[in-house]
Amino acid sequence: MSGGTSSCAVELRGLRKSFGKTEIIRGIDLSVQAGERVAIIGPNGAGKSTLFNLISGRFAPTSGEVLLHGQRIDGKKPFEINRLGLSRSFQITNIFPKLSVFENLRCGVLWSLGYGYTFLKFLSGLDDANRRAEELMEMIKLEKKRDVLATNLTYAEQRALEIGITIAGGANVVLLDEPTAGMSRSETTRFIGLIKEVTVGKTLLTVEHDMGVVFGLADRIAVVVYGEVLAFDTPDAVRANPRVQEAYLGSSVADQQAGGH
Known about the structure:
Elements: E1 8-19, E2 22-33, E3 37-41, H1 48-56, E4 63-68, E5 71-72, H2 78-83, E6 86-88, H3 101-110, H4 127-139, H5 155-168, E7 173-177, H6 185-198, E8 203-207, H7 211-217, E9 220-225, E10 228-233, H8 235-240, H9 242-249, H10 251-259
Helix pairs in contact: 3-4, 3-5, 5-6
């Protein structure tokens, strides 16, 4: 099957994952359209992170298929999937703490510009990489922290830097794992705007527990419970779904709706 021809950016077909005798993912079918923003929600232990690991190649499925733009990627290594246009962040911030903001971003763009791991000239002479890193730095609003070591950034700034690194390679499908975890309400609000801005024209899948983030960001929401998709619909339809409310959302959705969040 050739890639690049499917309107689905990510498609899961009969996906299952077991660890020993324990089945975590129990036959998930899901289609995410190109350019769509999808949030994956569910109670702790529902299989959300496992699902991300299957899509990004960290785990191989027990059975079923994962397709990226119509091309099967299940069984491929994470770096191979990344080169096909899919990139992800993790719950734990994953940056180079002893490098500056600019240096972190420049590292992120090198492979996509064809430099790989062999440098025939000094990094300072790589004008295209330096220019792209500067563009990313402005996009994530860290241009004033250009030469600050990543370890000295605030937590929210580190998360913004990680998103910059995640999109640095030019991936058109981006997976964000709990991007606003640990942030204050004001930081979260600003971060939602940042995520929207940097993923314009890209396909976004995010695992998120904050319902304010979910309903403010997603075009559709996939509710995963016990390794199965209970619902996959627009935010309004998911909010009103009694099965979803019973299984996961409960009164918190009604409370947020009443509060205007």
